[in-house]
Amino acid sequence: MPVFTRFSGSSQPGDGVPEAEDEPAGGEREDGEREATAAPGPGPAASRTPLGHHLTRLRTRRTRHPRTARALHLTTTALAAVLVLGALLLPNTLPALEAAGFARIPAEAVIGAVVVLALPRRPRLVAAVLYGLGLTVLTTVNLLDMGFNEYLGRGFNAALDWDLLPDAQAYVEDTLGGGVATAAAVGAVVLVLLVAAVMVAASIRLATVLARHRVRATKGALIAGTVWVTCSALGLTLFGGPIASERGAGALRAHAQRTVQSLRDEAAFVKQSKADTFGNTPPAQLLPDLRGKDVIFTFIESYGRSAVEDPIMAPGVGRTLDTSTKVLEKAGFAARSGWLTSATYGGSSWLGHSTTMSGLWIDNQRRYRTVSAGDHLTLTKAFQKTGAWDTVGVMPGVQKGWPEEKWYGLDKLYDSRDLGYRGPKFSWSTMPDQYALEAFQRQVHGKKRDKPLMSFVILTSSHQPWAPLPEMVGWDELGDGSVFAAIQKAGNKASDVLTDTTKSREEYGRSIQYSLTSLTQWLERYGTDDTVLVFLGDHQPIARVSGNGASRDVPVSIVAKDPKVLDKVAGWNWTEGLKPDRDAPVWKMSSFRDRFLKAFGSTPHPSKG
């Protein structure tokens, strides 16, 4: 009696297609399991069920079209093999996504085949499902790595980065609209589920085919394993990479090690954050050499070293810095500039802000939450602690409650709702920097007060996607910001800039020029003999703009009219003017707080936590 399960029922005796040569006669499969033998079709009882009816139709089609059925079987099997091998060899960066990278022998495929061939039917099915789910995890983390490397210049961290996904969705919503953000979130979930379904189905398919052709599959696995070991032992390469690959297992192992290390680092950081060089310094011994000065700390979004040195962005930004230096010198100001290595890259600006102000290396969200929930002394809080300054924050990017203002030591916070802006948003940025600075002058800096002012200002116009961009208008024309409506309407669309790397670089450079011009013109217009401005970038722009392998350095400048202020930092050996030289000193961003406090007369009194 013929067996109708060979090649998934694609061949029948007498149809001109050879039977499976490794399959014993009498319905006995190579794994020792008996297959039910039957006449060409289920019995009357089975055919009355929907499933039986469907199987009857399917077998009838296969019987009538054996060549088509065989071709479909081979195509499906080949596709399953391509999917599995592709998942095992998929790189985690876009530049590495080349055809040559898939010309490898993955050890995980050989091991998987050996395991499948050793198992009976039901355990084999379970193993295939688990293997497919493992491929889903591997594919997902590789795709996340691609995205994180493209935008943040680093791989995905499973222990720390899930908290960033809601922020990513909020960014897409602010940039491209709520509908796009929702569609992207739903699409991501559907994509993961689809990958899981496809990978599990492909794994089951291959496991079934291998089991049905056990003798040939065993020989093939032995040959592949021998070739893999030989290539590995001899270090043989092809297209610039090793032929013997274990990329899949290596990727999962790297993520596991990264997760474990991150958890260990977090435990150590909790202890570190409780110790502070200036934790017990009396108020009278904090910043005595700045008493009477209005001190302003300003962060310019995404103002990185690439803006000053990249051949596309640097010419325009360099001219702006040179022109601004001359304008400020004419107004009586002098400047010194250097470099800081940021704790973040491409995004998560608050990590750069908190690292600079706290003196701790805060390079992930968990560290940020840990330190901001404690009482570690920030540079801004040091001013508040003295009692000699009023302390305020001006943050047009904040659109809801921001409890960190207490940790930063701010007496008053002015966010996007407090600055009186009635003009249009410019993509993510709620208002142009020029308007934010004018509102700061009108509502805070320009008012008479009993104490000098320490201000913490975050400028946002240079935030990606750099479209549409604001333009400078007359300072007396700013009003409530409505003047920007026509400029916003005539600007580029965010979607057009996001998809064009060259355009993104050009528009990024323009945004930095705008922010620098806004700030330096504000200082020229409203600065006094007692004004001290410290401004810097929070991080480099995304890797697609700053370039692969770009540093994490950002420019930092200190500007003042009083020569005694700059005399205090003469030992820093910073470059004169607003543009730091290529070989100007480079410090870790976390070292800035202590250097600044010491330069202006603060006395260390450590606390151990």
Question: What can you see in these coordinates?
Answer:
- 50% of the residues lie in helices and 10% in strands.
- The protein has 609 residues and is of the alpha/beta class.
- It has two domains: 65-259, no CATH class; 276-599, Alkaline Phosphatase, subunit A (3-Layer(aba) Sandwich), CATH 3.40.720.10.
- Strands 5, 6, 7, 8, 9, 10, 11, 12 and 13 form a nine-stranded mixed β-sheet that branches. Strands 1-4 form a two-stranded parallel ribbon.
- Mean pLDDT is 85; it is low at 1-47.
- Residues 26-36 have a biased composition (Basic and acidic residues).
- Keywords: Membrane, Transferase, Transmembrane, Transmembrane helix.
